[in-house]
Amino acid sequence: MVRKKGSSLVNHKHPTKHKNHPVFRQRLTAGQKAADTVARLGGSWGFLGVFAIILIIWIVANAVLLSAKPFDPYPFILLNLCLSVVAAMQAPIILMTQNRQAERDRIDAHYDHAVNRKAEREIQQILKDIEVIKRTLREIRKK
Q1: 125 φ, ψ (degrees, to nearest 5)
Q2: What is the C-alpha separation between 93 and 50, in angstroms, rounded?
Q3: What are phi and psi of 123, to 5 degrees?
Q4: 85: which of 17, 58, 91, 99 is 20 to 30 A away, CA to CA?
Q5: What share of the chain is helix, strand, coil (3-state, %, to 5)?
Q6: For the chain, what are the domain ranges?
Q7: Is the pTM of the predicted complex or chain greater than 0.85?
C-alpha cells in the first residue's frame, strides 16, 4: 500500500502492527492470560477428543471393569457433577475472553471505518482530478 507521509491509513499487510490504542498495548493480568489459555484450549478439537476419551474410560471403567463395585455406578452421578463443574468454570472464563475480543473488534471496526472514509475522500478527489484532465484534453483537441 502506498501511503503519503503523515497519512493515517492503516497498513493492512501487518494489521496488528498499527495497534496504538491502549486496549492493544495493555499488559494482561495473570487471570486474563489464564482465561485466554483456557478459552484457546477448551475450544479446541484436541480438548474435545481428550475429554471424550476420558468420558469413555470413566463409563467403561464403572459399567464394565468395576461392575462388582464401581466407584460411580450408573447413572454416573459423580461424572455428572464433574461435568457440571467443568462447564460452570469454563463458561465464564470463555465469556471473559470473548468480551475482551469484542472490545478489540469494535476498535478494529472503528479503524477500518476511518480508513474506508479516507479512501472514499481520496477516490472522490481523484475523480475530480480526472474530470479536470478530461475537460483540459477536450479544450486542447478543439484548438
Answers
A1: -65, -40
A2: 20
A3: -65, -40
A4: 99
A5: 75, 0, 25
A6: 27-142
A7: no
